[in-house]
Every structure is written in C-alpha cells, then in structure tokens.
Amino acid sequence: MNPVAKLLIIGGVVLVIIGVLWQIGGKYLPLGRLPGDIAVEKENVRFYFPVVTCIVISVILSLISYLFRLFK
Predict the structure, then answer these.
(1) Which of 11, 40, 52, 61 could form an SS bridge with 34, CB 3.0 to 4.6 Å?
(2) Where are the transmembrane segments (predicted)?
C-alpha cells in the first residue's frame, strides 16, 4: 500500500476516535468552558477565546508526543 494512503487512513481513524471521545467526554470535561477562558458578550457582538482550554490541549498533546519519542 502507498505510504501516503496509509498515513491518510491512520489520520482519519485518529480524527474519528478523537471526535467520539470529545462527544462522550464533553459531558464530564467541560473543554471550552474552563475557568480562565475569555468570553465577552455585548449587544450585537460575542467574542470568545478559550485560553485555558488551548493550554490544556497543548499540554496533553506535548505529553503524548513525549511518550511516543520515549518508546520509539
């Protein structure tokens, strides 16, 4: 099998798994609504920037990357 095709298939499966976990885990872990996320609502404008959520996701991805490098 072509390596690019294999990579795309694996990437697609990983994205589906992440999507399912996000749907199920959204009930228990309120990503996007953590303390420290910026939300400004005015009359006609709503601005939202999930600062703490971005930091949490970055730390988790960094740990996963570290573990992959550790066991390689």
Answers:
(1) 52
(2) 7-25, 45-68
